[in-house]
Structure prediction request, 176 residues.
Amino acid sequence: MKKNVLIFGLLSGLIASSMLIVAAVQCYNNKDFSGNMVMGFTLMILAFSFIFVGIKNYRDKFNNGVISFGKAFKIGISIALIASTVYVVTWLIAYYGFIPDFMDKYAAHVIDQARAAGKSTVEINKAIAEMADYKEMYKTPIGVILLTYMEILPVGLVITLISALILKRKQATAIG
Prediction:
């Protein structure tokens, strides 16, 4: 099981991290954060499709076509944790090594978008306060790590739940 989880976790993490680098470069150069969010979540779902593949691979090749929901969930969440950790490490390297002012630019973008959308003063002040909180969290590596896990891990959890529900099987199907 460990080799299966590691392989599919790393594949998923490499895809998610590649997407992260492309999206970060585009955000930084084009200042269009919203379009990249849609692309980002789409590619996270694509990357996390390896959760489904990893569970199915284990069930069919190593467990005689049988897997409980609990075992499928354990495999899936392990793959999601490995992939998310690769993603977080990639972001730490990108953020601290190449784009340390990312949060300042992102916060300015969010506030500008609120103003451009004609939001009320209360809503704009709320956005300013929220961005100030994020910027405060980004002052420490632990804050960056926690926020980055919060960005990707919930997607992996949802894909894990769906995959475990779809792939659970109490008995092997008879062939022939």
